[in-house]
Automatic annotation (TrEMBL):
Annotated protein name in UniProt: NAD(P)H-dependent oxidoreductase
SUPFAM superfamilies linked to this entry: Flavoproteins
One GO CC annotation: cytosol
GO MF terms held by the record: FMN binding; oxidoreductase activity
Superkingdom of origin: Bacteria
Domain NADPH-dependent FMN reductase-like: 7-147
Length: 190
């Protein structure tokens, strides 16, 4: 059985630094999702520089419209945030706040979508607490967090430009997150 609709997984995250560790982690998860047969799209940190989310202001700039439409069309998401001072970055949090614009959609918020989550931070405490916060936000937005989430300590693991890392376990974790999102999205599409 084939679906006429292409199944899409959207990746959101990273930091403002080009080639950041969190963006490289996100790319690994997206590559694994794509290998499962879904179409992927990445909205990296530099494209998440948006005005602070405000429900009272209905106008959206071009980047915000791209983000909102990307989430609207996505069958699954992968979100990777750097951990700053024990929590997710303001950049990623603000982007997730824009999902509020989907509240009136037939499929509101992240309803019915698997959401793979990972946090990359310099230290275990920030990596773990950031992942916890991402899961809480995903649940509040009606998304289904994948069973596996990634807490990655960038003091111990370094990602390279070629899609690998100094710690193979981190790569396996990120790949499994991408696979879980893709498999859920493909199952729901049929």
């Amino acid at each position: 059985m084939t679906s006429a609709k292409k199944v899409k997984v959207l990746g959101i995250g990273g930091s403002l630094r080009e080639g950041s560790q969190s963006e490289r982690a996100l790319r690994i998860a997206l590559a694994a999702a794509e290998e499962r047969g879904v179409v992927t799209e990445l909205i990296p940190g530099p494209e998440l520089v948006l005005p602070f989310y405000d429900t009272a202001i209905p106008e959206r700039d071009e980047r915000a419209r791209k983000l909102i439409e990307g989430v609207r069309q996505a069958d699954g998401l992968i979100v990777v945030s750097p951990g700053y001072h024990g929590g997710l970055s303001g950049l990623v949090k603000n982007a997730l706040d824009y999902i509020e614009d989907l509240r009136e959609d037939a499929r509101p918020y992240l309803d019915g979508r698997a959401v793979g989550l990972a946090a990359v931070a310099y230290g275990w405490q920030a990596a773990v607490t950031t992942l916890e916060q991402l899961r809480t936000i995903t649940h509040a937005l009606r998304g289904w967090s994948t069973p596996l989430g990634g807490s990655i300590n960038s003091a111990e693991t370094k990602f390279d430009e070629g899609g690998g890392a100094s710690d193979e376990k981190s790569v396996r974790t990120l790949r499994l997150i991408g696979e879980q999102v893709a498999e859920h999205a493909l199952l729901r599409a049929h």
